[in-house]
Amino acid sequence: MEIVITLVVFIVLAIGVMYEIDIEKDRYGHTMRKGEYYFDNQKYEEALKCYEYAIELDSTSPAAYYLFQKTLQSIQNSQ
């Protein structure tokens, strides 16, 4: 009986971890799309905040770093 309870607890925890990972992926994707929207509409400060948050969500994302840098350059060029 202890083995069954331990197995059930393990499965519930594993499902919770997978669910959290999916939420983070969705949050990252939404943030990147929002940043692209702001960038396309020349709202660079808002875009920069989105890309900064995307980097917090996934610090291994080359796209987030690239778009963050691209947005910084656009801010500098518009001044």
Explained architecture:
With 79 residues, the chain is mainly α. Helix 1 (2-40) runs antiparallel to helix 2 and helix 2 packs antiparallel against helix 3. The termini are far apart. It contains three helices and no strands. It has helices spanning 2-40, 44-57, 62-78. The longest helix has 39 residues, at 2-40.
In brief, what are we looking at here?
The chain is mainly α.
Key descriptive features of the protein:
89% helix, rod-shaped, mainly alpha
Strand-and-helix sequence, N→C? HHH
* Mean pLDDT value: 85
Largest beta-sheet characterization: none
Report the span from N to C terminus: 69 Å
Number of helices: 3
- By DSSP, the count of extended strands is 0
Strand content: under 5%
Oligomer: single chain
Class of secondary structure makeup: mainly alpha
User: Rg from C-alpha positions?
Assistant: 19 Å
Helix content: over 70%
**Are there runs of 5+ residues with pLDDT below 50, and where?**
none
Shape: rod-shaped
List the helices and strands and how they pair.
Blueprint: H1 2-40, H2 44-57, H3 62-78
Helix pairs in contact: 1-2, 2-3
